[in-house]
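pasting for ref
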Amino acid sequence: KSKGHSPNFTELVSNREPRTLHLAGYPFNDMSLFWENRKAIRERILAIDVACVYWNITSWPRPQDVVIHLRAYGGKCVDPKPKFDVKGQFVNPPFEYYDRILKRMKSKGSVGTIWLAARCRENDPVAVQLVVKHGARFVPDTGVRQDVTEWLWLVSAKRVVIAQSTFSWWAAFLGTASEVHFPLVGEWWGNRPRFRLYPNDKRYIYHDMVNEKWFMTYKHVANTELKDTW
């Protein structure tokens, strides 16, 4: 009942026997497998004991704050001129992706602190550009598992800009954000068959960097999906 790409999540989460569920990479090409079980996944499978970091965090993202995820694949965080290949398998969105979104946000109203969940921190050239041009700040270093801290920051934020990354995809999918910016790029969007990882959810704003179409709704994405973009 729970094999291959058709797991029975109701069965998985109802079985309270201690065990490990191994998701190697992203064996989910269709997020509809998880949609109706988001609450159970958040509270039972991907639950994090926040006690390990709460004591060392004095504040959390405010409603107008923006939390941005920078994944950095292949050691590109130390490349002063990272290459951007929109057709690559794993793609680091360029500075222009984040810059365009932040400019639109600022033009439409107040923007609070811009937080960066960046695994390479100051060694990521895109992060440095965001610090210089937009006054962004790095998610606080709690002195413990930084990836756990950044996950909690992304999950609790009301405005999130994700990368082409399962880390921030899950954080947005399971979190409480009212505004999620989603890059349509790389293997998630260009290859055939496309991964169905873009929710029909009004909170999501899509950016098709293959076709240079920005700030799209799910309806636009669904229409684009029917066309061969490569």
